[in-house]
Structures are given as structure tokens and as C-alpha cells.
Amino acid sequence: MRPTSLLVLLPLAACHTQPVDTASPAPVGRVATQAAPRDAFAIIDSTGRRIGQVSAIETQSGVHLEVAITGLTPGDHGMHLHAVARCEPPAFSTATGHLNPASRQHGARNPLGAHLGDLPNLVVDQHGLGRASVIVTGVTLQPGATSIGAPGTALVIHAAPDDEVTDPTGNSGARIACAAIILPAGAP
Fold this sequence. Notes:
Layout: H1 3-8, E1 38-45, E2 50-58, E3 62-70, E4 75-77, E5 79-82, E6 122-124, E7 129-137, E8 153-158, E9 175-181
Antiparallel strand pairs: 1-2, 1-9, 2-3, 3-7, 4-6, 5-8, 8-9
């Protein structure tokens, strides 16, 4: 069994309100469609080893991100979109800060927030397995002012939970995993 197949079969351990179809495998590589750009990107740890994937699918509501990951410590982990699609281990500082084009404060519970890149915490079970399904509204994968796919962003997972209030990072600790979300040139 390929590691990506194992990741798709993990129990849903995360947070979003949108249902996830666990019966069909998450895409690996680009799936060409006319209406909805879609791609999958490797998540790496601080050693550069692949530990999961994030699938990005454009919908009418925004971009649907499906995260499947293994090998993390159990509990909640901050998860954010960062402004630059560069994931250079070990610290992933090349991803720069959170995606924040409106110059807001950090956190869903912050009255002056949130950053566009603020996502719900990733919940990891006692076996180190985590899955999340999140809709990022108001963005697209296609090139343009609201794109997260061209020129790209990075999905970064942190060591600690995001408190959803403290600016600029929610006290979510070190960056422990990263995926560069970049659609190939010429993508629809």
C-alpha cells in the first residue's frame, strides 16, 4: 500500500463543518478539470521527509483544503497559510509570515482579526494521525489578486495549539511541517 493511500484512510480527527468523503482517495498530482482547479502537495517535516499531503480544490465558496498527516505529537497544532510558497527545513522561515493582505490582527477570536491565513487547529489523535477539511473563503487557486495557488502560499503546521487571539501567531510555537501550495504554470 502506498503511504498516500494510508493517509486517506485515517479517521477524521479535525475540525471543519464541511463533510469529507473518505470513501474516495485524495488526489495525488494534478487533476485537470475545466471548472475547478485541483492539486495535491506534499507536507514535509523539519528533516524534509514527506509526512502527509494537502489537497486544494477550488469550489464556489473558496478553496477547500484537505489535510492528511502522520507522525505528529497528539493534540492540537496551529495551522496557517503563510505568504510565501517556500518550505525549506528545518525551521520553514522561508514561508515568511501568515497570509494577511488586509493587515489584520491574528486570530478568529481577536476583534481586530483574523488573518486570511488563519485556519482552525489541526487535531492529531493518540496515534499521531491528523486530518482536517477546511474551506478558505474569498480566495481562488487561479492567478489573480485573491489567489493562494499562483504565485502560491505555504501551509504551515506548528508545534503548539493556536490560541486564536494572540498577534501575530497565536502562540502556536515552532513550525514543524510545511507544504508549498503552488499551481503549475498554465494551470486553469
